[in-house]
Amino acid sequence: MGITVGRIFQTEVRVHWTWVPIMAFISVIFGIELTDGTSTGLPAGLAWASSISCAVLVFVSVAAHELAHVWVARRFGQSNPTVVVQLLGGPYVMETDPKSAGEELRIAIAGSLLSGVVAIVFAIPALVIDFGPLAAAPDPVQAVGFVATMVAIFNAMLGLINLVPGYPMDGARVLHAVAWSRTGSQQAAAAVAIRVGRYVGYCLIGVGLVAMTFTDALAGFSLVIAGWLVMNSSKFLDRRSGLEELLAGVKVGDVEDPDPGRVPPQLTLDVYAASYLAERNGAAALVERGDNLIGLIGSAQIRRIPGRLWPTTHTEQAMMPIADVPRVSRESDLWPALETLERRHLDALVIDGGQGPTALLTRRSAAKLIQERAAARQIQLAASAQLRKTRFRDR
Q: What is the CATH number of the domain that holds 330?
């Protein structure tokens, strides 16, 4: 998701597509304000240059915020293959797997700390120009003052908003880290963060509705959207926590795909998709040249290639080399392996520790086990409810 712009700290940096309308909106709004005689009344060229500079620096500020998380995570030995720069929320922080509460706290708070520093750095020239001896300076200096003021305000807001204790904000991970430190349990900490996040979402929606009715409709609508996002993220994480509990004690070896399939390297993608993926949703195949295993291919690989090129593209050209496929131990817990699948956007992992042919943990095999355990849990809950009802009647 997003456009790749480069690699920093050995992490691929992607820009979310929503930055196109966001930067256009900022440029237009500030450009109109700066050319309006009731505002600063700057010349048109200087006004639009200033507004575009604001838009660019807003993007750079958010990117720096996210990369601060990346840098601190790498200092603790953590790395994710990609980071997506988007306006709201901390997707990178959500994907980290800290080993302690202190580590989680440092990673989560790094972005807001950097945003605070940036706000102070830009606030100094803004104050000097607006209230100091440069208050009557020429238009170019006034333009610099305007840009510095807007960037300082934005970074202050960025740092504070991200500390809201509701997912997907960084503040949810800060709260999780504090609760983890106090309780000693990640599950208990997750329950606290999810519950608080749900209440925060309700409050934001309520305040937004009041604001829409009595004060600023746009600001109120923004609060409602933010509350809806926080509340739905909390619901998602609640379901995710339930799924983690459902899979407690399950090992990777319990979910081995019994039939991962094997395809030749010269098979074209249109044939592979029609004859293999269509009937094996969530599965992946090993690419073999003779007796040599050379790669792994699944929907994650072929969807990166336009459909019009499938008839002329071979599996060998689209596959992930087998040396690059993450490996997991047969005796390791299933849940961290599923998190690796999700973070890396893969369809399968190679299972180490087998004596026979190469084994895979696939999305298909994991989904089958989840469905079986969920069905068994529903039967167990229904039986328990029926037993309680019978005991109540017997009283």
A: 3.10.580.10
Please tell me the predicted confidence (pLDDT) of residue 40. 56
Same domain, residue pair 120 and 260: no
Cis peptide before 168 (omega within 30 of 0): yes
Strand partners, 352: 329
Alpha helix locations (H) across the chain?
19-35, 44-75, 91-95, 101-131, 139-161, 170-183, 186-214, 217-246, 269-275, 299-302, 315-318, 334-344, 363-394
**Cβ neighbours for 335, distance < 8 A, ≥ 6 positions apart:** 244, 247, 248, 250
Cα end-to-end distance, the chain, whole Å: 59
Amino acid at 192: V
Weakest-pLDDT range from 6-10, 34-38, 351-355: 34-38
Answer yes or no: do 158 and 259 share one domain: no
> Does a structural domain hold residue 47?
yes
What is the pLDDT at residue 282?
59
φ, ψ for residue 9 (rounded to 5)? Answer: 55, 35
Q: What are phi and psi of 266, to 5 degrees?
A: -90, 0
Where a domain ends, among 141, 163, 185? 163
Q: Tell which of 128, 163, 198 closes a domain.
A: 163
Say how many CA atoms lie within 13 Å of 89 toward its Cβ.
18
Structural domain including 149 reads 3-163
Q: Which tens digits make up the pLDDT trace of 87-121?
A: 765 566 666 778 899 999 999 999 999 999 999 99
Same domain, 158 and 257: no
Q: Angle of helix 44-75 relative to helix 101-131, nearest 10 degrees?
A: 160
Question: Which residues make beta-bridge pairs with 320?
Answer: 296
- What CA–CA distance (Å, rounded) separates 314 from 190? 44
Q: Which two tokens mark 155?
A: 């970074």
